[in-house]
Amino acid sequence: MNDTPTVLLIVVIGVLVAAGVTLLLERSLTRILLGVILLGNGVNLMILSTGGTAGGPPLLGFTPPEEMSDPLPQAMILTAIVITLGVTAFLLAMAYRSWQLQGHDEVQDDAEDRRIATGGERRRARQYIRAQKRALRRTIRAQRSALEAQIDAQDELEEAQRAVIREQIAQARRDLEERLEDADDEARARLLDSQAADARAAIEEARRRVREARQELAEHLRTDRENERRLRRELRQRIRAQKQQLRASIRAERERLARAEDSDMQGVD
Prior knowledge:
Blueprint: H1 7-24, H2 29-49, H3 71-102, H4 111-182, H5 185-261
């Protein structure tokens, strides 16, 4: 006689085990209880299928040894039935007590796990805020360094322009002195007026270039200050939004923990 289980029995065992595992993954204690019952029945059928074909009672002197049924699966099934009964009673009591206190039988999150998770989120938020502040400080330092380099370059350019102007004035004076030595009084007066007009024009041109350079530098400074203020404002807004979100989550977690710890606030309606 064939000792292998039938296909129908294998299908029934698979359906019971699959349904039991699916119900065990739910949050409702009632569904968990049904999952335990279905899973226990499926495992009992699987153990029963390992006993082979049916035979006589496993009693010496009453049934020949080669015709006896295997007593081990039967003893294991009886033990499993008793354990399943105890687990069922325990889960029923838990579901009834949860319904009595909270008005539902859903499994609550562990308070310590939630506290650890909230602490991890808080640490990540603090690390993100510190990283944003460090990035902002680096950006500000880079902008200040670029601005200082630009100011130094502009100062060097202005100093070079002043040196050129001074050299031109000195050269004009030398030329004027040379011409004055060779000219008469009337020509000397005309030459002085001409050289003075040229010197004034050169000085005005140099002053104009200096004013333009200073205006351009002031415009750069104003642009850099506006960019710095905008970056600081955006960072403050991001930090404020993250802190508000973190406070809201902490407040919700504290309220949930207060409801979980205070039995007078649970299921009174």
